[in-house]
From TrEMBL:
It comes from Thermogymnomonas acidicola. This is Carbonic anhydrase. It comes from the Archaea. GO terms for molecular function: carbonate dehydratase activity; zinc ion binding. InterPro entries: Carbonic_anhydrase_sf.
Amino acid sequence: MDRRLNRYLQGMASGQTVFVRNAGANVATLKDTLGSLEGVESVTIITHTDCGAMGVVEQVLRGNDRPDDLAEFMRPFIGLRPDRDEIERENGELQADAVRKMMDVEVKSILVNTGTLRYESTGRYRALFMRPSGNTVPKERVDSTYVIQNSPGDRSTDIYIARNFLKIREFDQE
Ligand SMILES: [Zn+2]
């Protein structure tokens, strides 16, 4: 959902691509969303460095936080060391493996280094709910908006992380 990926993803838009965005590219919290997609030929899991959701994973693995709301979200990470960089490196393939178990499609993962991305800091951020589609965030909101782009039934973990860890207070509906 990270706003810093917005411009990068705009560059990937094509008539063939459907974007799904959530906290940490976590497949376990996307059951409704993935079940509703049709005609999928390939899936690319896009994770990134300096990921807030992986910071949450680290905190939970350290035992600093054990919210029941994150049980599904945490399942792929049980047993990993609480090392943020290592978790970020592992996450893409953990999620890709989860997709491979659910769908008979080509799956790959990419870890984007946020240090290479172009974005501006606007200081005040909102979140925008979107349905999975080829649409990306409107241009006027490209630097200020975290995007949760999935089926409404899959959003509870994303809202929890956005509120409690990213400190986002304002949520808009597309
Ligand atoms: Zn992230």
